[in-house]
Specification:
This protein is α/β, with parallel strands linked by helices and about 500 residues long. It is built from 19 helices and eleven strands. It has two domains: about 15-170, DNAb Helicase, Chain A, CATH 1.10.860.10; about 195-505, Rossmann fold. The protein has a nine-stranded mixed β-sheet with strand order 3-2-4-5-1-6-7-8-9, with helices on both faces. Residues about 1-5 and about 465-505 have low confidence and may be disordered.
Amino acid sequence: MPTTAPRRKERITYAQAFDINGNTPPQAIAIEEGVLGALMLDQTALINVIETLHPEYFYKPEHQAVYRAIFKLFTQSQPVDLLTVVERLRLDGELETAGGAYAVSKLTENVVSAAHIEYHVRVLSEKFIQREMIRISTETITQAYDETTDVVDLLDKTEQRLMDINDKNFRSDYKPLGDFVALAKEQIQEAGENTDGVSGIETGFLDLDTMTTGFQPGTLIILAARPAMGKTACALSMARNMAVDFKKPVAFFSLEMTGQELAMRLISGEARLDGKKLKSGKLAGYEKEQLNHAAQVLSGAPLYIDDTPQLTIFELRAKARRLKQRYDIQMIFIDYLQLMTSGAADNRNGNREQEISMISRQLKALSKELNIPVLAMSQLSRAVENRVGNKPQLSDLRESGAIEQDADMVIFIYRPEYYGVTEYDNGDSTRGMADLIIAKHRSGGVGDVHLRFVNEYVRFENPQKFGLGEGGGMQPNTAFDSGGSITVDSRINNDLAPDDDIPFDNN
């Protein structure tokens, strides 16, 4: 008799899904029986697979009941054999569900060896994944036909369910210490071969790279600041340096600005042309040459921008995986964390702090999964404005202490000139300067890094390009301040022939 079709908002069962599709569900009953029999006969086999075998891997409800009894006995440190399993089923009121004592005893009759049990468990996991994918897809199709369904919510739920299958069933297993020692030695050797001492992804900011040895794979970096400090500009400058100077493919997820706005900023910084002038389109002949050269340089850079608004963490993870697979991206930038949502319907009216905590954990998991650094920008609370000196602290991270906990590195942006501080403690001028304050560094030191912030191009740069004073502060550059034409010492200019140097106006 056909299974009754579910109401469209209900969770579809396996039976309903396969009745709708008219196909036999993927299963391996003989292997299910062999695995259960082996677990009751061989304690070693049980120990080898107990952490990777789940009740839902078994298709038959009878077999699920038997495995639940086995698992309960194991977790309670009780012996596992045919007699104890039957007794456990009887005490739990599930002996009838398992088919009775005789049916349980039959499971041990045809077991020849438990030598291949890990392979057999892998087969059961594959059958389960097939069943789950069919069930979820059928449920999605059924709900998609319903005109009252929120399509965005349905898409989020479907993607989340598919990701949950991946997270639960494809976790990496343990490895002996020797494997990790070999990897560590290889990393040390590679680091020793680098003349600049940078083993991770270089940001192009020399002092920052020296202090951090580059952004390391599998780490979560938080770049945080108050509004108007230049979070996006700083991250975009890093992304530009990685993609243009070091040819590293990077992804930039912008939840606040459009891709076109980001491109305009990049062109402004690359061509050394004021953003206002670019928007007006009133360019002199030589400025058009600068613009064309900058566009050519940037167009060939492996920088991939996604400006999807209201991006959920599950959408981001799916897109990041595709970018890693297609372009082998080496780093991810996210602008910014507080604009993301969990995508879960039950969190939309819930605790925002808990939602941010979940997003933070997912970003850390993503960095480990793809084995690349992930940099997420974050807002700081207003407490910074009320503090003497206005320097940010870890406690200023907005909405969740989990951000600090999950992050491997926390970097604050502080522009002393913005707060009316005209000199550093050593007397050097703060004009045009920005400080990157490394407040947390799980595998290294903390401290401050001085950068130049060029406001008219909304760009961060190494202060050495403009002349560094003896005390480390910026010294006025007469060519820059007088409004004359100068040539900046950079990789781009070094790549040009002497006759191709293009002067630019700093007005």
